[in-house]
């Protein structure tokens, strides 16, 4: 039963036609106030009727009149197969005098009509997404009435600002606002809650990522219950009616719809949301929760945990055979997925590397000292001459080279070695100690 009923009556009193419009809820209680109207002006009645339909998208017409068009399918109701599927065109009475050429022409005409009806039906089944204009990638207006019923848009333009406020259609202070809204194709096993004026839905039914034939619900599986919470069915450019003025209905679309929280007892979550495999894989036929929007924020007043293998048995009664992975994937691209680094292990590894560098530095410093002694000995050494064993004078070239080498080892190499040892101590204090200003381990985030 629809949540809102609109009752339209036409009375002929002594030759004077009077129109009355009343709006009531599911219990029969009339809203009253600006929702009710009594007038002799048919245009005014028609305008008010259109405004009420826009304000209460879940409406149903309580009675029929020439003002309502004597026909209506409530938005969100299960499709009437007799209206959704074109009826077979009856054969025309055969003229006993008709020629074979006349029969061929009639058959051709009949096929053309059937093809036209088939195309219209396909367009309706595809829904708003088949004719919605492409979204502007750089700019979207704050108030966008693209895709609404042309008649409603024309009438809306004639309504004064005061009347919009009284009818609750100005959009201010949380009031409803006339906008294009998609109507979901509802399966018989689904219970749908829809916002009064917009594209927000809570659907309780069975696993269904797209059409009624999709998912485990479409296959007829048991134990595949689902709760689908959607804001913005139809995405950036929903359309209310097609180019022929026929109401459009649409299936859920996990890629196009604006924001969604999906809870399913049994589903193929990665396949339905078109996610890459990663290291966690793409499980099938398991319970899952999917959250999707332009931006997703998870907040806690205390702690947040991402925990895998919380229970030894999964939702289907099977045993969890291995520890599930946690993947952080940017861009839905797992081609260069790499494991995270553990902070404590990294700290120990870098500390050990520093010790090796420090030991190597000390070895170089010791070698430099020995080399300086060797250089000093070579630069000042003498030989015994053949003249009674008198020592010769030191080599002038060796003395100069040895002195220069020892000077550079002392002023440059030894200074650099001592500086490096000092820097290693500072590096350890800055990056590898919890009190350091750039400690490499996070104070708040942990992983295994």
Structural description of this entry:
By secondary structure, the chain is of the alpha+beta class. Among the domains are: 1-70 and 145-176, no CATH class; 177-292, no CATH class; 343-431. The protein is built from 9 helices and 11 strands. A hairpin with a 5-residue loop joins strand 6 and strand 7 (200-206). The chain is elongated, with a radius of gyration of 41 Å. The relative contact order is 0.06. The model is unreliable at 70-98 and 120-132 (pLDDT under 50).
Beta-strand content? 5-15%
| Unreliable parts | 70-98, 120-132
Oligomer: single chain
Strand order of the largest sheet: 6-7-8-10-11
Compute the number of helices: 9
N-to-C span: 53 Å
What gross morphology would you assign? Answer: elongated
Record field, number of beta strands: 11
Give a short account of the largest sheet: 5 strands, antiparallel
Whole-number mean pLDDT:
76
Q: Decide which structural class fits the backbone.
A: alpha+beta
Spell out the helices and strands N to C. EEEHEHHHHEEEHEEEHEHH
Gyration radius over CA: 41 Å
Please give the share of residues in helix. 25-40%
